[in-house]
Amino acid sequence: MAVRIPRKNAVLAAALLCAGATVLVGCGDGDGDSDEAFAGKSADAIAAEAVKATRDADSVRITGTSQAQGAPAAVKTEFQVDEKDNCLGTLSMKDAKADVRQAGQNVYVRGNERFWQNAMKGRPGTDTVVDRLQGKWVKSEPGDRSTQGMCDKQALLAAMDSDKSERDGMRRGTATEVDGKDALTLTKQQADGEKLTLYVATEGAPYILKAVSEGGKQPSETLFSDYNEKVEVEQPPAGEVVDPKTVAANG
Length: 251
Description:
Elements: H1 43-56, E1 59-66, E2 75-82, E3 87-93, E4 96-103, E5 106-111, H2 113-120, H3 126-133, E6 137-140, H4 153-156, E7 171-178, E8 181-189, E9 195-201, E10 208-214, E11 220-225, E12 241-242, H5 244-250
Parallel strand pairs: 6-12
Antiparallel strand pairs: 1-2, 1-11, 2-3, 3-4, 4-5, 5-6, 7-8, 8-9, 9-10, 10-11
Helix pairs in contact: 2-3
């Protein structure tokens, strides 16, 4: 779906982030033996615990890859966020890359040439504006719709509990590992052929460790790590920060 953005915000257009992975709070069968993790709990109870633990964590690193049907390439994102909206992140698609950070109430985006060319494509003065943005952090003000929610931990995790109708029919799967951590899989096969798999930590808090969507219109894989680690963010140097309205006006 195309999104129309006022010219003064054009340099921030590519910073719009769509959470690609669908993480389900499942329910269904799945009684376990006493030797198993979550013994006696069904898939819905396990998933509900996992969602709550993940959303209640002080911070988390979210690393994802997603490719919508018909898209020329996959979008890759990595964001470390906390409850105070402190944020460090990157996003890329083929040769277009950008760094994102939030310190205080402001979001800053620093993209490479390809990133800004894609964001400004078809607009007057694109080449001049892109040239001025090289090596610069573009600052958005609080409430700017083009970056709103980008560094909001709860907004990034909202997909886990957004569609209650998708909760039915998950099943307990096998025990496995995700980056060396023990996990239990919860799976669901959709009617359209999409397979959804949720990996839940079996030691310590039942955090979500990974979510995978296969065979659907937007295959994706999302990893969750570095729970409760401190997110240290510094304001970019003043000389490296530009105002998007000023840049666009002078373009």
